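Run log, item B.
One chain of 176 residues. Sequence copied directly from the ordering sheet:
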Amino acid sequence: MALISCPECSKEISDKAKSCPNCGFEINSEMTAEKSAVNGDKKGIGCFPIFLIAGVFLIFILIISGTDSSNGGSTSSSSSSSSNKNAWYSGGNLHSATVRQWRIATEANKLATSGDMAMVNQTIKARVMNSGNIDNGLPYARQMMSCIEEASGPGVPEKQKVSELAAACLLLLNWQ
């Protein structure tokens, strides 16, 4: 159903209406067909531009997140990306999780997320990046995971955000 303007009172009415409910002006089928043809350029567009922009933005984000900054911003080769799929730092997605979600997550997911959270500390991040070996971040990831595990123990509300616990752990661990 499209809306058209009543030729008499200019109120918006359905193109299916036989008469204007406001002023009673009779609408004939030729008039609605003519109005539909005039407004045809608007019909059918709907949310398409929004979805198009969102799609382009999503593709852009996927391209950016799929780059490896250590090799000049180009995407990783297929051989290294397949070996990275099972690496300790891959697959962490608990950054905005609740304690409840943390408790039921896999150890691998917790470790990878903890590694990301440990790298928030600029000293640790610089140390690991300067070493050229991401595996040097593993001890920090394990310490962070252990701290979050302890902080999310019994008595902690299940809706508590893990990121808040990780922020507290960053302070408690006092990495230098």
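Observations after the first pass:
- The helical segments are 29-38, 48-65, 78-84, 99-104, 107-118, 122-131, 138-151, 162-173.
- The chain has a mean pLDDT of 77.
Flagged for discussion on Thursday.
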